[in-house]
Model the fold of this input.
Amino acid sequence: MWLILFLKGALLGVIITAPPGPIGTLCINRTLERGFWAGAALGLGTALGDASYALVAVGGLAIFADVLAKIALPLAFCGGVLLIWLGYKSLGRDPIAAADIGAADLFRTTVATFFLTISNPATIISFGALFAAFGLAHESSAENAAFIVGGAFTGSVAWWLFLSGAVRLARDRLSDLFAAKVGRVSAYLLIGFGALALCVATYKFFA
Done:
């Protein structure tokens, strides 16, 4: 029973994480620039954010969900600004050798990506809908919730490790010029995602 719940949670983690978007673009950008472990640290931050929202969804924490709804716009603004800043910082920056990436850099990457992930409260709606589709909406016991959330975290981490590894392997087979071009394209995409997030947040603010 618990294994089934864990596997369902892992599948949910992959389904939530895998679709292309700003976090995936950022993962590709960071892995190209700084190596596999930078992408893995980014994935860890994202997985922690996804697990936090999974906990809210499976636990039915209505009060916390209400708080998130009230601060959704500030979070969206902050997320948009952060995406633009990350994209801007990537433009014109040469790739950094993996050996030059210290633990402090990886920790900052994890923390920044965690906050970037939770800046999109719509994720909790996605989790809620998928939980209902997978028949997990009424799994409210602490043990069951732990296995579901643990599965969601594991599935998310597994996806990001796979993506970082794939990008790193591809990077080893690409010329430096082509890799630099891909990095610049991903940086512009990050700026575009950030600008879109700011536009949507501004529209909702004045609507």
Q: What stands out?
A: The chain has a mean pLDDT of 76. The chain has nine helices and no strands.
